[in-house]
Amino acid sequence: MGSTSRPLLCLFCLALLFYSAISELCNPQDKKVLLKIKQAFNNPYILASWNPNNDCCDWYTVTCDATSHRINSLTILAGNLSGQIPPDVGDLPYLTNLEFHKLSNVTGYIQPAIVKLTHLKSLTLSWLNLTGPIPDFLSKLKNLTSIDFSFNQLSGSIPPSLSQLPNLNGLRLDRNKLSGPIPSSFGNFPQGLYLFLSHNQLTGSIPSSFAHMDFNYIDLSRNKLEGDASVVFGSNKTIQIVDLSRNLLKFNLSKVVFPKSLTSLDLNHNMIYGGLPLELTTLNLQYLNVSYNRLCGQIPVGGKLQSFDYSNYFHNRCLCGSPLPSCK
After folding, report:
1. What is the model's pLDDT at position 24?
2. Cα angle at 180 between 177 and 186, to 5 degrees?
3. Smaller CB count within 10 Å for the chain: N or C?
């Protein structure tokens, strides 16, 4: 190579390095934090794209804001990841979405440093192996619209302070080991919330404050809830799906007023008595199951009621009529 070409080549290399430096959109502090998170998880293969020589806005599982180029989403799904969620996640101040999902070797408590993520809108820590209580600090994250802690090993009672989240439209705490009552403050949530508390060890009655709450979808199944569930319903509500199955609920179904919006109702395996209200024939039900209760009387004829299998009605005290045997 000629003596004149060497300086030119050096200049070209310097220019390329300079261009690479100024063209990287990723915030250097965010990049540093992400690399700490990777190290905390022992540099797993699922984070192989997190190469310090590349722009972190191009890394897999993260996204950057189009204007500020700050990391606004961290989503790690279904990979070989082990250990506890590190406190460094709290040092990504512009996160609006944080998700760890289907990572059964992720253990420990819900990371306290999450409280620093004041811009957070969606928090999903599901299908992990988290233990310990649901922390009170979540009520400080006022921008949250969705919380999903389903399929973990969380225990203890549900903090009433969660109802202080003014923008929450979805709360999933199902498939854990939670105990104690459903907080009465849950009747103060924003209207239209979907609430999943199924497959826990919750006790007590359904809060009377639910009479003022219009859920979109509520699933309280497979707990040890007692008493009257009629507060969930009401003629002026717009609730669509209700699952209260496999509890210890005991109330008169004949006196319940159902909303016209109801499309799915599951009450199986309780101690519900009375009969099936005639107004059920006016609903556009896609699913109905009232089996294993203490219901009596004839199944009203009309609507969708005869389209369901007999097993959706059987094992009641004296319920009769199609699709069950005729009344005597």
Report:
1. 79
2. 105
3. C
